[in-house]
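Thread title: Can someone regenerate the structure for this chain?

I was given the following input by a collaborator and told the matching C-alpha cells would be attached. They weren't. Posting the sequence so someone can regenerate them.
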Amino acid sequence: MSTTQSERLRELLEPLVSSQGLDLEEIAVDSVGRKRVLRVVVDSDTGADLDQIADVSRALSAKLDETDAMGEGEYTLEVGTPGAERLLTQHRHYVRATGRLVKFQLNEGGELVARILKVDDDGVDLEVPGVKGRKATARRLGFGDIARARVQVEFSRKDDEKPFA
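Best answer:
Regenerated them for you:
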C-alpha cells in the first residue's frame, strides 16, 4: 500500500475509530488474487470486545462505501485487534503490556526476556525471571535502549501468579 493511500485511509478512518473509544493501531491493504483485503487493527487500554469490533466495522464499511478511498474493484474489510505476540511500538503499547512477559531486542546488542512492571515517560521497570532456581531481579530499560519489543505468549503462567513484585 502506498504511503499516500495509507495516510488517506488513516485520515478517513481514525476519527471513526476514535469515536468508538478505540485507537487505530494499523492499516494494511493486501492483494489476494484479484481481490484486495483492507485490514484494520484497533485496540484500547481495556481491549476491544466483539460488539465494539462489530460496531467499528459497520462504521468503517459505511464510510468507505461513501468515498473512493479504496478505488474501484472489490475489497474485503477485516477489523480486528492486535495478535497475542504484538510488537510494541508506541508508549501506549508498553502501558497495555504491563504485567506481560516481553522479549526485548536491545540497541547495544543481545536480547532480554522480562516482565513489564511499570511504564513511565522515559522507559520501563522490569522483572527479569531467575534462572536455575535463582530469584528474579529488577532492571530498568530506557526507551532509547530498546530496538524492538514483542509480547510473549505464556502457556504455563499460573492464574494466581501476581504480575507485580
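The chain has a mean pLDDT of 88.
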